[in-house]
Amino acid sequence: MTSFKALGLTLALLLGSFILPGQAQTAPVRLPVKLFALLPEDFRHPESLAVNPANGDVFVGSFDARTPESSRANQILRLSSQGKLVARHPLGPTPITGLAFAGNHVYFLNFGLSRLQRLPSNFDENTTVEDVATFAALSPTSPAERHVANPDGSQDTIRFGSNGFPAINGLTFDRAGSAYVSDSFQGALYRISAATQCRPCTVEVISRDPLLATTGALPFGANGLALDPSENYLYVNNAGDGRVLRFPLGGGAPTILAESIHGADGLVLHEGLLWVAANQADAVVALDLNGREVARAGRFLGIAPDGSPQGLLFPAASAVIGLRMVVANLAMPLTAGTGDEWEEDVTRWNLMQFDLPKVHGHVRDDPNGGLSPIKRATSH
Predict the structure, then answer these.
(1) CA dist., res. 86 & res. 37, Å (int)
(2) How much is the pTM?
(3) 200 preceded by cis ω (within 30°)?
(4) What are the contacts of 124-128 at 24+ separation with CB within 8 A?
(5) Contact assessment for residue 297 and residue 283, using Cβ atoms and an 8 Å cutoff
């Protein structure tokens, strides 16, 4: 009898991560995370991720912005689907933001050089980096004013400032090979048509909108990007405002889908759910397409003896490998003070992972616990 009780308890715990067909969801699913990869000792601040859907290789870009510049060691890593280091490419003092996989290349936004660049998927440390497009100051350098209606009937006017630095941040591709890029400082969205083929490539501004800029404590506006399967809409995170926006590519202005997501950074749309890396909440939050939270992965659990984060600490990006999601712990201090942020204590950086849940049928469950060989993968 005791064994049957134990079996029943085990099944109840396992099923707690899933919403069965016909069962109403009464609360967001909570998902634990575990280690995917401990990164090399000289790799700091993993900010961006992409996946090769053919073999599950994971690409990781660094945002090492230390001063002086001579101390920086930015690089892109290639890891196997099991988290083993396969190759790396040094990039020196210029930090990297968005990564995406397209046309058997890994594309990346060189934040320091204001360029979209690429490497072949089988790169090594000696492979030549190819420039694809260059971003420049816009005129005007900041978007229009934002008018905010207050509950008491008054109205605030927010005027944004920018010195014209193109803070290229989020990156995604459509099926035709066109790239979409967000600009966190100038409040803009860009399109580079046929980016996998064009030479030279033209950067087109497709939106300048006050909802793409921020005056928040986190000084980055438009950030992570994701296209819906129809490719009619582009979803955009605004990190400083803590919002997810929905932008119609056929014309029109972005609208607010969800808010109060503290530090909405990287964004993945996977099987009907928007997975938002909430960097200031130390979590990855899944939203349905109405903007309701249906799942939440991870929390900060302290600093391990090796100096790496346990759980999630300032997660900046995620990517799907089969039935798992991999998350980058950026773990970057933001304030000038000392002793006020756990990120200050991190001396070794890592990637975490969790099994994707089945929520209202959006994500299929895996009888092998989500760690089976690659069945399908999407890139960020």
Answers:
(1) 12
(2) 0.89
(3) yes
(4) 124/87, 124/89, 125/87, 125/88, 125/89, 125/90, 127/89
(5) yes
CA separation for the pair 328, 76 (Å, rounded): 13
Return all residues near 26 (Cβ < 8 A) that are at least 6 apart: none
- Nearest-angstrom CA–CA distance, 16 and 201: 49
Integer-rounded Cα radius of gyration of the chain: 20
Proportion of the chain above pLDDT 70, given as a percent: 88
Length of the chain: 380
State residue 358's pLDDT score: 82
Instruction: List, for residues 19-36, the tens digit of each pLDDT value.
Output: 544 567 789 999 999 999
pLDDT digits (tens, 9 = 90+) for 307-316: 999 999 999 9
**pLDDT average, residue stretch 229-252:** 97
Residue type present at position 277: A
Read off the pLDDT of residues 251-288 as tens digits, 9 standing for 90 and up: 999 999 999 999 999 999 999 999 999 999 999 999 99
Q: Would you give the end-to-end CA distance of the chain in angstroms?
A: 48
Q: Report CA torsion sign: 42, 47, 50, 51.
A: positive
Query: Residue 308 has what DSSP assignment?
Result: P
pLDDT band at residue 7 using 50, 70 and 90 as cut-offs: very low
- Sorted by sequence, the CB contacts under 8 Å of residue 106 that are 6+ apart come out as 50, 52, 59, 76, 78, 99, 100, 118, 119, 120, 121, 123
CA angle in degrees (0–180, nearest 5) for 298-81-351: 35
Q: How far is CA 313 from the centre of its chain?
A: 14
| C-alpha to C-alpha distance for 284 and 380, rounded to whole angstroms | 14
Half-sphere exposure at residue 7, Cβ-oriented, CA atoms within 13 angstroms: 4
Q: Which amino acid is at 268?
A: V
Q: How confident is the model at residue 293 (pLDDT cuts 50, 70, 90)?
A: very high
Burial class (CB in 10 A: 0-12, 13-18, 19+), 91: buried
The Cα 25–Cα 19 span in angstroms is 7
Cis preceding-peptide flag for 229 (omega within 30 of 0): no
Q: Which domains does the chain have, with CATH numbers?
A: 30-144+170-334+348-378 (2.120.10.30)
